[in-house]
Structures are given as C-alpha cells and as structure tokens.
Amino acid sequence: MKKILVVHGPNLGLLGEREPEIYGKATLAELNSLLEAEAKRLKVQLKIFQSNWEGAIIDFLTAERKWAEAVIINPGALTHYSLALRDCLSAINLPAIEVHLSNISAREEFRRHSVTAPACRGQISGLGLKSYILALQVLAEMKR
Q: Which residue stretches of the chain are H helix?
C-alpha cells in the first residue's frame, strides 16, 4: 500500500472561513475527509498534517520521510519565500506535488512565483479541492 504525506501550510486551518470567494466554503476537515475517502478507494495510506509554522512543517516532513513514498503539499504563503521548505523537499528526496486551491498565476503578483515548486514533480492549482484529489490520484499511480 502506497504511503503519502499530505501537508497543509499556514492558514489552511481556516478553510471555509477565510475568503470563501477565493478558497471555497469547504472546511479543512471536509477536505481531509474527501482525501481519506479517495485514498481508501485508491488503496493508499495517508498521514495528514497542518501547521502555520514553517519549522513544524519541515520537522514533520523530515520525521516522516522514511515512512512516506510521496508528498502532497500546499505550502500556503510559504510557497513564495520559504527556501528552507524548498531545501527540505529536495533533501527528503520524495516525489512531491505542490497544490493550491486558487489559481496562483491569476492572483497578486507576489503569489505568482513559487520557490518550492522547483523541488516538486509538478504543481496543480486553481481547481479547488480537486487540486488535492488530482495530486493524490497522480501520486498513487506514479512509480518512484
């Protein structure tokens, strides 16, 4: 059974409340339930983690790197400036997909650049919750 880490970065704990016109009305718990259901269908095991702290996310990825076979990560605002997270994603040497609920390319200028994406196999954005589901489906099928 494939093992995948799902990491939700800063402010994703506020899903459903924070700017629902951009991020949607679904809560983080609802998103995680959808991911768990899809993981069950795909016969994939997940470990899901959310933190507003860069160091906690890096610690989680580092600690779980030997358990996991792949990573789905929504770095939130860390996308745009966290070289430490980028280095961590490179160092753990797992296939990762960066996801975003909104289309970061169509938003404010500062959101259009990702420093973390180059350390990932791909990026899926702008599809709401489906961004995560598609990443899960791709990683479940991907050969390392």
A: 20-23, 28-42, 54-64, 83-92, 129-141
Q: How far apart are CA 98 and CA 14, in angstroms?
A: 19
Q: What is the pLDDT of residue 23?
A: 81
Domains along the chain? 2-141 (3.40.50.9100)
How far, in Å, CA of 14 to CA of 109, rounded? 23
Check pLDDT > 70 for residue 111: no
| Enzyme catalytic residues | 23, 100
What pLDDT score was predicted for residue 112?
65
Q: SS3 for 58?
A: helix
User: For the segment 41-58, what is each residue's pLDDT rounded down to a tens digit?
Assistant: 999 999 999 999 999 999
